[in-house]
Known about the structure:
This protein is mainly alpha-helical. It is built from 12 helices and 2 strands, in the order αββααααααααααα. Helix 6 runs parallel beside helix 11.
Amino acid sequence: MIRNSRILRSLSPETTPDWHMSNETNRIDLDITTTSSTLSTTTSNTSNQHFPTYYELNLKIQHYLNRIFQFAILFLFLTIVMVGIGPDSTLDSCYLDRFANPKTSQSLIAINKVFLFPTCVTLTFLFLIYFFLNSFFNSRKSKQHIHSHSTVNNNNQQQQEHINQQPSLVVFPLSHWKEVLLNLLYICTWYYISFSLVVFLKISIGDTICNKHPNSVSGHYNFMIYSLLTVNLLSLLTGWRNRIFWICYIIYLSLAIILLADTFFDGYHSFRQCFYGSTVAIISHFIIAKLITLNYSKNGNSNSGEEKEKYENIIYYGICIYFGIVFLTRFIWEYILPIFNVTEGAAAHKGFKRSIFFVNLPCFLLIITILILKKTILKRE
């Protein structure tokens, strides 16, 4: 067992390790000959910032996935129980009747739709943009730094600085800007497909409680819970989990809680509808999180470009299959089953914003965009 791995990773090239293997204990004894100046530099640098090893980070990722999986199973089970219970005065009642007082209803709509929800959506996209820009500029700095060290005669201090920067660029699953951009597109596409599923569930279940049109599954809960979990996961995969992140995330979380509370207590959705939206969000997030961490969990960052491309194709084809299932299910429900008088189909839901083509258009465009980018600027060399 090798101890003090942080120091070992940061040793300068002039350090000369001497390895001794004991057959009885299968233990490696490492004798290191180094100067006091090198060791002091190493100690000061590693004490300021800790870069996790692959095993530490992979353990955190697996722990996170296990917790999300447990919540997904719990919410799915409770959802099945709610379906089995059927109509219930507690589950299917509006906390506030917005339509009893039109003036109150208009003011509540203004708070939710004009301020809270747009603010949360904006913060979500700002997080995603920062993840990309941060990886982009870090990748450029790393490339320039490596180039300068390959052309200039380096002294010990320059070598030490270069080595200390390497773990952050190597250990995290999403470090290069191309990988970050591709996975952001995967995550966004997966959400839009899940949103298409939510719209289908809204109209197919046909629950009009708390609204004038079918509103069976809360889109607000689906979006907000999916976004909160996704931003947290991306911070872990990209390595941006410093104090600034947590301050921003706490503000983001606070606004999200206010939005979700407002959605229920101001009578936009019943408890059942909010719970259904949460279930879709958690299960959806777990599946895409499992897919985008599959390669790192098995191989770390040590596998070849071809191997990474194989796992990227698994994610892409998984997205295509998910989209195909959701789209075909709704298409059959709206246009095939009405022929046999099984469902009312599209005739009962004429709203353009909920139409099958309008809702699925972003999914289709994102899938095509990913395919084009994978063949051009995101193509692995």
